[in-house]
Amino acid sequence: MADGNSEIPDYARGYEGFEGRVGRTSSQSTPWWKPEPSAPAGAPNIVVVLIDDMGYSDISPFGAEIDTPNIAALAERGFRLSNYHTTPVCSPARAALLTGLNPHRAGYGSVANSDPGFPGLRLELADDVLSLPEILRANGYATYAVGKWHLARDANMSPGRTRDSWPLQRGFDSYYGSLEGLNSFFYPNQLIADNSVVDVDEYPDDYYVTDDLTDRAVAQIKSLRAHDADKPFFLYFAHIAMHGPHQVKESDLEKYRGKYADGWDAVRQRRFERQVAEGLFDEGTPIAERNTEPGYDAPPWDELDVAEQERFAKYQEVYAAMVDSVDQSVGRIVDTLTELGELDNTIIVFTSDNGGTAEGGPVGTRSYFSQFVHGPVPSDWERDVPHDEDLIGSAALGVHYPRGWGQASNTPFRFYKGQTFAGGVRVPFVLSWPDGLPRDADDSGVRRQYAYVTDLVPTLLELAGVEAPTERHGKPAQSRDGVSAAGFLRDGASNSDHTEQYAEFGGHRGFYREGWKLLSLHRDPDRVDDPEWELYDVTTDPAETHDVAAEHPDVVAELARAWDEAAWRNTVFPLYDSPADQGRRRPDEERYSDPVRILAGTPTLERYRSSKLIAYRDFDIEIELRDWTRADEGVLVAHGDPQGGYLLCIEDGTAHFVFNSYGRIARVSGELPDGVDTLVLRAVATPQVRWDFVLEASSGGQVEVIAKLDNQFQLVGMAPWTGISVGLDARGPVDLELRERRGVFRFGSALRAVTYQPGAVRVPAAIRREIDESAEYHAD
């Protein structure tokens, strides 16, 4: 039968985009398959291991006494970049590392926790920004990510929000880890597998997050090889370590007991001597003096009393053991590649996102989230809640070392994470690829040429022999700022093509050009655009010990102009002369503080949504019961973990309210009346950042106050860390004693729902801003 188009030959019919031949039947047609992306023959695997908050000297190839044989073996087979720089904090470094764009151009002038409404701080990757996994996947690579992400705003970590800046939407085939800027090592508040929250209520007794991430990374490699013998892969392993809170397995800690009794001054000196001996610096290079600037200072070790020395040494033992655990993880990846016969054709990079940190303050802390709370809070606020010192490093505490150890981490440099001085931005970098970058016997493998975090993408693309697409989702892709370091990796006599680089974070500025480095330390918000410039010749003074600004005013003026031009070009402006401006969030986030009724059995709420229901304000928690009898018991509602939180449970016919104030536990109880159908916990906030609690029970309309707890420090900043769970105390336990006795202590069918009714905000805006700004900065 004619179809009305008989004048068109059958063989000429077809479909748009199909390059075969289509007739009326298959015997008249020619099939065609769209070619899959294919990597160049012999393309190397690529593994990038990124550590969080680890300073320049914390691994043995860069001077440390810490046992890191697996990383040392990579350095022996490959190269150490002794003059590699990154950004002052984490989210900007990760954005630059994965895109090759300068951080502000990528949208990450700061950490991914706010959204003040300007291009340099949008804190989400734009649609026209290509990522390294997207490029490699387009060239035939399998792409995997495990660990810390922190490139999605915290407001977008909950169901129903955009996932545009989540790992799978940015080129990874699979992801497992934490979207947060930090996490507990024993009780992560939320883990993500691909695009979904991992459904876990309780972690195994032997759980440790570094081991979990390593298990997943090894499994991904093995699984790929079981299915495809030839496809190269990219593994981005972004450790949650070494970010606080510092927690470690006892089996790793034992090795370092007693190793740091002589203190940070002695450790710095010995590390620097090793660095010089290894050729990272020349003989006669000056080491920075111990930091003495107010707010950054570290006391001489010998001036501490014995109790302080003993506690501070324990903090560093924990830190060293954590570095050791990271090295063990690297060893497991290397062993897997060796077993597969692929180690020599794998590019392995090991580096850190920024320098060692001072966030533990002058004396460290056993209560990490309490330490975050700065600003005009009451004078009796406890930033170091006392605990049994034998628990330092365990799941029970959230500890962080004093900033004297932070400067030891950054040996031989000044300052810390967050500043543009070398202590904040100069970190170790190791690269190994025996097949593609073999090292001559007389080559030390040390490369002193300048390199910056944006250089990693073009370097890896050149070494792997792949080209980047020119578009992303139909839009022209933004051009990269980084330049390849492959030239001086292959030939140590070659120069770096990266000749200048701006830096900025929180008003701190820096500008590098061919050996000169211009710096400013930002102190006064009113003078954010009036920097006090310092100038250093970092070819002879890499630790920035001698300011020569007065001797070279022409160089200062030239580099200051260059910084200004680069700032405009890279969307650094506006600079923030008000903390309220930088901490601003999108207006639509206010709906997160609307009342919510949570049915029993609802998965644990995400941290940020949970915090909006209680932070700085009055709130009521109404618990609905049905047909309750004295046989019904368990946790009704829990919010938080060992680092701070609260829970309400029923045990033996009695209601128990537990308040964990950054590790200090308070408990009150009240006998329940027969036939109780409603419990209400009322929290009244005070301007002094306190809460007064009242617990009421209702039976047949009769209301009775059964317990009170007054004058408790509010949970603010980053606490509570684990979100709200209904009917159990999920993930990290608010009350360790209860967890040991009853586990997660599930409530039965007598629990219907829990309703949160947020009330008035009582803490003054100025105090809230300072606390939130400090918490968001330290959460990176």
From TrEMBL:
PROSITE patterns: SULFATASE_1, SULFATASE_2. Keywords: Calcium, Hydrolase, Metal-binding. CDD domains: PAS_like. InterPro entries: Alkaline_phosphatase_core_sf, Sulfatase, Sulfatase_CS, Sulfatase_N. It comes from the Bacteria. Transmembrane segments: none annotated. Residues 19-38 are annotated as: Disordered. Residues 44-466 form the Sulfatase N-terminal domain. The keyword Hydrolase applies. It holds the Pfam family Sulfatase. The keyword Hydrolase applies. Belongs to the sulfatase family. This is Arylsulfatase.
